[in-house]
Amino acid sequence: MSTTSRRSTREAVAQAAARARPRADAPTPAESAVGRVERPDGPWGTGVVLGLLSRREPPNRMFEAIARRHGPVSHYKMAGEHVYLLSDPDLVTDVFLNRARDVMKGRGLQAARPLLGNGLLTSEGEFHLRQRRLAQPAFHRQRIASYADQMVAEGLRHQRSWADGAHVDMVDEMTSLTFAIVGRTLFGTDLTGDARTFADVLEELMSGFGQLSAIGNEKVVRALPKGRYLLSRVQDLDAVVQRIIDEHRERIADGDAPDDLLTWMIQARDEEGASQFGASMTDDQLRDEVMTMVLAGHETTAMALSWAWWLLSSHPFVSERMHAEAVELLADPSSPDGLRAPAIDDVARLPFTNAVLAETIRLYPPAWIMGRRTLTDLAVGGWDVPSGSIVLASPWILHRDPDLWPRATSFHPDRWLADDGRYDESAPGQPRGAWIPFGFGNRRCIGEQFAWTEAVLLLATLGSRWDPRLVPGSPVDTMAAVTLRPKHGLPMTLHRRPAPTS
Questions:
Q1: Structural domain contains residue 500
Q2: CATH number, domain at 396?
Q3: Strand 390-393 to 81-86 pairing
Q4: How many distinct structural domains can be found in the chain?
Q5: For residue range 192-218, what is the model confidence (pLDDT) as tens digits?
Q6: Cα 279 to Cα 444: distance, rounded to the nearest angstrom
Q7: What is the span of the domain harbouring residue 308?
Q8: In what order do the strands lie in the sheet with 390-393?
């Protein structure tokens, strides 16, 4: 097994800082043709900065208050930049989808480049399209079907460590489980031994980068003491990722290549872009994509599942209904616990479980905010938005807008069911742009079907056997950083459900 030497803090900071610098292939904002412009109403920029730094109110709720008070387009100036917050679904669709070529990733993800490098979440232009093209085959439906059995097997293995009446932090449990799944399915590697270290460091980094990126760009991250500390912590994750890459290269050289995403990316060649980017990925490029897949492949799903267990605990009738659906489908008297393992074809046969998941990520979208930087002058909602401006849109705001959703803040999974009982994403009748948990267009999450399949199968696997309940008196609030996390964790008591009777 290959190992990597522990780099010094100075080396780690230098390498992470290099990843934060704009790449040659990244487009830069054009010089604006708009002179002095009239801007929409909005909050005092310094007040926004102080609010983000003090954390008196979760950022998601603070931005929601801004949108509700100042209308569909609000503006503030922060850290020398003009920021426009859009809260109208038509405007969000226009900028983020119809005008996608006129914008690039905003400073939030760009400031996270020390962590994510130049992976699919942060890269731009032709390089982004090339990397997406190389990774896309791993997320075709046939491949996801092959992952499904591994997802369920990991879920069954994980729940064997649970005991009736035990107290657990469900955020830790779901993070550990989804981390194991992404290691097994996408990288053919057992990551369970790294789960605790990786989860602890990743939580610290996402919280820290999320706070810093909200108030400034990557230069701010590198300049502040907290930013430099966070950069030094990236080395702990780099060591895990480099070990995975080294092990794969050794197995490929020995003729024992695992059938997974990383093997595909190591062996893939892109002759079309060879002159500009090289025919194959370097270790640095592989590192960036692995880190991106680990974050996007386990963190967001872990948070969606964590919020789902809390909502089910808070709504026992919904929990019992989801449990009944799973038991009716999976009952198997020949199995020791009376239940068979769900399979890929069962995802479509669990409409209410799908509805529970959709309603969970409507109320608690893991990717709670999106940002773009304009590359040209845009007209948005009757306002001139000059080139170089930051435009924000928040699924948290759009998904909870009472003008777009009846009972907007209520947990109501039935809204996602058609008249014939099927799960239907369009069943609520929401306008386009009001439901954007996975983004837009060529920036739509490449792993959407992977994550959805995983979450539904795990809810059915675990929910048919267990009834987790929040420990009474436990505070529950949001922590909005790179993802939307439960601020205090989710301490829950595990209750084993009785085996179904024939």
A1: no
A2: 1.10.630.10
A3: parallel
A4: 1
A5: 767 666 666 666 666 665 555 555 555
A6: 25
A7: 9-271+280-493
A8: 73-78, 81-86, 390-393, 370-374, 103-105
